[in-house]
Amino acid sequence: MEADLRPTWPWCLLPLLMLGVCAPLWLHWGEPALFLAINQACMVVPAPVWTALSLLGNAWGVLAVTSPLLLLAPRLQWAWLCAVPFGVLFARLGKGLLESLRPAAVVDKQLFRIVGEKLELASMPSGHTLTAFAVASSLYFALDAPQRRRFVWLWLLAAAVGLSRIAVGAHWPGDVAVGACLGVLAGGLGHGLWRNLGEAYGDPRGWRLRAVALLLAATVYTLLDAPLDFEENLLLQRLLAALVAVVLLVFAMRSAKALKAE
Q1: What long-range pairs does 207-213 form, CB within 8 A, spacing at least 24?
Q2: Which of 19, 90, 230, 231 fits 182 for a cystine, CB–CB 3.0-4.6 Å?
Q3: 211 sits in which H/E element
Q4: Residues 202-241: tens digit of each pLDDT
Q5: CA pair distance 135, 131, nearest whole angstrom
Q6: Cβ(112)–Cβ(39) below 8 Å
Q7: What pTM value is reported for the model?
Q8: 167, 45 Cβ separation under 8 angstroms
Q9: Please, what is the average pLDDT of the chain?
Q10: Percentage of the chain surpassing pLDDT 90?
């Protein structure tokens, strides 16, 4: 199969456009007043809502939520997995090089809500937001143009994940903005890889999807082993673990049936 390296225009322009529009945020104009205003406004929503949204920015949480794609649309599963290496690289580089302080290290903790562990270091960018936007953009770009209109909610969900990071007191608005920009870039680069995947990546008899199944098995263990970020997510984690277990059971049955049919 000949490699298709032609980029699509959205991921070429969108991250740069977003970065320019969000400049006042990552330059921290108006801080800490803006952070405090958003954090306090979010207090009207119960903390478990925000912690559940944050779980969608955790890679293990995303693996659980998207696990049905292993059965329904394997190529879409690969679409966001292709963005993971870029997302990890951007998050590690950003946090390692910038070494910025989180709100809890700068603002009086009596003035805002902190949910979960008090974090003070490695603020920029928001890794959860980066993950959410990488997943949303890679899935969105993988859809056919007529389908994309019905999946605009992916962007709204990613934005809600970013907002949750401010609501739980973990990040500045600028961290979230940069995380979103880098996430879209990671999703676009992942899309470039995804476009060159062969049909074998969707074959339930092949090792590629079985590798994904093993990753999902690790997800079940991780979800049941300990809270991911917040104690409030324990019940949700157990429900998601049950979902992934059902997906794996059905996948195993389908794989066995496919092998017998050969």
Answers
A1: 209/70, 209/74, 209/251, 210/255, 212/70, 212/74, 212/77, 212/78, 212/81, 213/70, 213/248, 213/251, 213/252
A2: 90
A3: helix 207-225
A4: 777 778 899 999 999 999 999 999 899 899 999 999 999 9
A5: 6
A6: yes
A7: 0.91
A8: yes
A9: 90
A10: 67
Between 246 and 25, the higher pLDDT residue: 246
DSSP for 101-154?
PPGGGTS-TTSS---SS---S--SS-HHHHHHHHHHHHHHHHS-HHHHGGGTHH
Rg of the chain over Cα atoms, rounded to whole angstroms, equals: 19
Contact 251, 68 (CB under 8 A): no
CA-closest candidate to residue 82, choices 189, 208, 200: 189
Cis geometry, peptide bond prior to residue 146 (ω within 30 degrees of 0): no
